[in-house]
Every structure is written in structure tokens, then in C-alpha cells.
Specification:
The chain is an alpha/beta fold and 171 residues long. Helix content is 43%, strand content 16%. The strands form 2 sheets. A 5-stranded parallel beta sheet has the order 5-4-1-6-7, with helices on both faces. It has a two-stranded antiparallel ribbon with strand order 2-3. Helix 8 links the parallel strand 6 and strand 7. The two termini are 15 Å apart.
């Protein structure tokens, strides 16, 4: 029996215009996902550039995101596992603060110091939800980071391609 849904954030529930920022910091991408911003070895010039880009970023929910979470909350626990830089998380929390209140647990890679596809971050979510893998559904857009690791643990999965699908149609 399904007791919880766990969602990825970007590409699943929300989107941003920071792709160019990811390209600029590509050599530091993995480090930024699992480290506080101030602890990264990224040069100060790049840090300043990323801060400026993030400050001006647009972070928005897909049209059906709030509705699907509202519907699922009536029957299931709702969690989130997201790979996110600390600086992007700050901007995202600012823009989507009320929406984040729907998720418990809300696991951000930089806080956990673990990024998907590492199974430890999935185990942490399951532990906090106090459920077994077969009682959870992982919804995400990345086969490598969301779907395959969740399936390997025994979770059910929903793969979404936001260019072709609405999440509400898949659940």
C-alpha cells in the first residue's frame, strides 16, 4: 500500500532560468550540490557571478504543481528530495516559501551533503517518513538521479517529461 509520495523539485514541480549559471560553474557543480556555498572551492569571481545570476533568477511552479500536492496531501505523506545549491535554495525558499511548507521531509542536497542518485538520500527520506521503500512513490524527471535509484531501492516511480506531460495526468 502506498503511504507517501516523494518529489524532485526542478523539472518536476518547478522550473528556473538558471541553466546558464550551471554551465558557468560546471567544474564546481557536484561540489555545490553537497556543500554550503561558503565552503566551496569555487573562485570568488565565480561566486559573485553566481550570486548575481541567482538574485535575478525566475523560479516558478508548473501550473499543476500546487493542485497535485493539495490532492495527494489528503491521503498521503508528501516529501521532497532535491539536488540544489545553497544559493539557489535561498532564492527558491524566498520565491516558493509557502509551497515548501507542504513537504516533510524536505531534503536539500547541500544540507544533507548527499546528492541524488546516492541511495543514502532516498534512505533518509524513507526513514523520516517511517516507511518502507515499497510504500513510497518517487516522482521525478531524471532517470539517472530520480527514477533508477528509487527503483533499485524498491520504490514505485513516476517519470515526468514536462515538455510533453502534466504531472496531474500521471498520478
Amino acid at each position: 500500500m502506498i503511504r507517501a509520495y516523494i518529489f524532485d523539485l526542478f523539472g518536476t514541480l518547478a522550473f528556473h532560468n538558471l541553466k546558464s549559471a550551471e554551465e558557468i560553474v560546471k567544474d564546481y557543480h557536484e561540489e555545490l550540490l553537497v556543500s554550503p556555498f561558503t565552503e566551496t572551492k569555487m573562485p570568488d569571481k565565480l561566486k559573485r557571478k553566481l550570486k548575481e545570476m541567482t538574485k535575478n533568477a525566475e523560479i516558478k511552479l508548473y501550473d499543476d504543481s500546487e493542485e497535485i500536492i493539495r490532492q495527494l496531501q489528503q491521503k498521503y505523506a508528501i516529501g521532497m528530495i532535491t539536488n540544489i545549491y545553497e544559493i539557489t535554495a535561498e532564492k527558491t525558499k524566498q520565491d516558493l516559501n509557502r509551497f515548501f511548507n507542504n513537504f516533510d521531509p524536505l531534503l536539500m542536497s547541500y544540507e544533507c551533503r548527499i546528492a541524488k542518485p546516492d541511495p543514502l538520500i532516498f534512505h533518509l527520506a524513507l526513514e523520516r517518513l517511517d516507511i518502507n521503500p515499497e510504500e513510497a512513490v518517487m516522482a521525478g524527471d531524471s532517470m539517472k538521479r530520480d527514477i533508477i535509484p528509487a527503483q533499485q531501492l524498491g520504490m514505485k516511480t513516476i517519470k515526468i517529461d514536462r515538455t510533453k506531460q502534466n504531472l496531474i495526468d500521471l498520478i
